[in-house]
Amino acid sequence: MKNNDFQDITFNRHSAKVFDKDVKISNEEMLEMITEATKAPSSVNMQPWRFVVVESKEGKEKLRPLIRFNTRQNDTSSAMILIFGDMKCYEKAEEIYGSAVEKGLMTKDVKKELMDFFMPGYENAPKEKMNDIVKIDSSLVAMQLMLVARQHGYDTNPMGGFEEDKVAEAFGLDPEKYVPVLIVAIGKSDYTAHESVRLDAKDITVFK
Amino acid sequence: MKNNDFQDITFNRHSAKVFDKDVKISNEEMLEMITEATKAPSSVNMQPWRFVVVESKEGKEKLRPLIRFNTRQNDTSSAMILIFGDMKCYEKAEEIYGSAVEKGLMTKDVKKELMDFFMPGYENAPKEKMNDIVKIDSSLVAMQLMLVARQHGYDTNPMGGFEEDKVAEAFGLDPEKYVPVLIVAIGKSDYTAHESVRLDAKDITVFK
Description:
2 copies of one chain form a homodimer. Chain A is of the alpha+beta class. In chain A, 41% of the residues lie in helices and 15% in strands. Chain A is built from 8 helices and 5 strands; from the N terminus they run H-H-E-H-H-E-H-H-H-E-H-E-E. In chain A, strands 1-2-4-3 form a 4-stranded antiparallel β-sheet. In chain A, helix 2 packs across helix 7 and helix 5 packs antiparallel against helix 6. The termini of chain A are far apart. The model of chain A has no long low-confidence stretch (mean pLDDT 96). Chains A and B meet through helix 1, helix 2, strand 1, helix 3 and helix 5 of A and helix 1, helix 2, strand 1, helix 3 and helix 5 of B. Chains A, B: Belongs to the nitroreductase family. Chains A, B: Keywords: Oxidoreductase. Chains A, B: This is Nitroreductase family protein. Chains A, B: It comes from Clostridium algidicarnis.
């Protein structure tokens, strides 16, 4: 029985700092949530997001020294979802666009036209530009993942403060290819979240 | 009558390339959507997102040459929402945390402790690090904005390809302070969106 109440899911989301240690999330349900989260859009549908789901005792121990002050979340969450951006995401373009052709969503000609159009930009993008693209797209998916988690009855806590230069290698990934974006702790909250304030929309918006 | 069906809002969201030109969104409703979108989380609640809502004929004309191949969205949308990240967002920390104290959500002592803890990091962050933070946080809000728009009955198209080095100045913003993140076209879709493929969750996820 999933929660389908958009208002409740979205506006009652609060960051959970402590989770119920006894709650496990099956790999099947985790993949289901990732499937749902990755319906998020990405630049030219390149889907640069990659996930390392840290759930084992050994994995949590490896992660613990790398997440600084957020050890409670690491120690109590069902899983810590490390979201990485793939700096060579364009290597999957053929697979993505080929699959669209196979499924009849795109003709071969359109595929060629699109890929001829955007591939040179991706293949030759300066590192800073690619870093921006993969972090923006991976953050879109992170937000949708946090909402999908609520639909499944879980709570989350997004974390930006961790040892960015160590986390890829610690989990066997090439740090040149995979840049860490956010870590999302997930589980059932065992924490009384407090309301937090927001700036008034009028003070951060101009109409032109 | 807002749509409150999470499944429909989230999984039937598709990028709209053409909008119904006759649909206008009032400034009041736009601010309501921005208020709802900014319930999204951000690093230490710094809320670095800023919005320029381009809706006038003059604004659209100014934006047109800067958005490259997405002119249909510019010409037909109710508005083009330019989302910027504020590289000096920490200048609002006192306002944000002061307001939390005023509202009884935080004691003065906790406020001081938190600000003493994170402010030096923000004030002294290298440009690349601050760029990452504001782009990640602003992308979280962008995703929530696209979903909130669906709740209000509108469609969106997020766009990353535009003249990033010109858009701030064109709208009177200091380009050193405000970095563009995404442009979100919003309106009522007048476009038959097609399904798009996604990579299999199993192929982009590892469990550790």
